[in-house]
Amino acid sequence: MQLPDPNDAPMDALLRRSWHPVAIADSVSHEPTAVTLLGEKLVLFRASDSTVTAFHDVCVHRGAALSLGWRDGDCLVCPFHGWRYDGSGQAVGIPSQPDRPIPAKAALTACHTREHVGLIWVALDDPVAPLPEFPEHDDPAFRSIVCPPYDWDCHALRRLENFLDFAHFAWVHPGTLGDPEHPEVPPHEVWSEDDEIRIRQPRPEPRNDDVKTGDLSEEAEFTDDGRVMTVMHYRAYPPLAAQLRQELPDGREYVVFIAPSPVDEHTTRTFWHVTRNYALDQPDADFIQFQVDVVAQDRPIVESQRPERIPPEITAELHVGDDKVSLAWRRLLAELGQRALAADRPRVV
Prior knowledge:
Layout: H1 9-16, E1 20-24, E2 33-37, E3 40-46, E4 52-56, E5 70-72, E6 75-77, E7 84-85, E8 91-93, E9 110-116, E10 119-123, E11 143-152, H2 156-163, H3 169-172, E12 189-193, E13 196-205, E14 228-237, E15 241-247, E16 253-264, E17 267-276, H4 284-304, H5 324-344
Antiparallel strand pairs: 1-10, 2-3, 3-4, 4-9, 5-6, 6-7, 7-8, 9-10, 11-17, 12-13, 13-14, 14-15, 15-16, 16-17
Helix pairs in contact: 1-5
């Protein structure tokens, strides 16, 4: 087991001060829902007005898990002694002593909670950055699918960086995203904008499926060996969200949005969407299965990486020219981590 690196305090601060998805919004009913984020057990509670709040999953009385309780009206009820908490987390009822005043300290610890792009997002501490943008999700020209999350035995930062790695396509995804006969990484632009990493890359893709590269018109551009020319646009939102918008021939756009959520140091639950502006009558299952097959190829590789967490020092791993996306990403993370750590420090008056 990898021990925490004392030099990684900035990243720890950034992870706690960032938004992370913890559940698909439609899966959170009016009954308490247990989730785990950064090793902390939380309970999601949806009130009668449909707003969702995340609390630490522990009753302030004797420490029972509130996720084992239930909703009564607008109150969350503890399963141990029936204590009742309102939507703000304040205790409003102690059945064993109904005529006595409720202690002012009888209140749950709430987390920052938002519902966004079909997901419930939580930040354990005051967030230092906004929720990641995903404009195609609400664009009526696109069909956006909230896909089933999946778990990997890895650190979330490794999973996200894998999504931004181009050199592995030929070896990990031969025939789908890459070609071992053409392992070179096509030229691409990388820049930082508004605390994001943005990437543009014209890239040929094997013509291999009926999801992205099938049924193309004669006007589509192909390479001499039959691959389809596309243009990739990435937006990477630190620390753990990214979007790929792929321009395909015939005006098609295929979008994948991912947000790996750090359940703990060794478990990542990836929330993801597949979005498109074409083939709207084609079964969504075709598009989901294509991505499921792709990430199944990634999983054993990412789970094998050591150290489990990306090292805090840039020089701890070897880098070559085609790693410029990863280097830009790591440098931005380091900068934002220092900001988050500074926000944690008390001000000296």
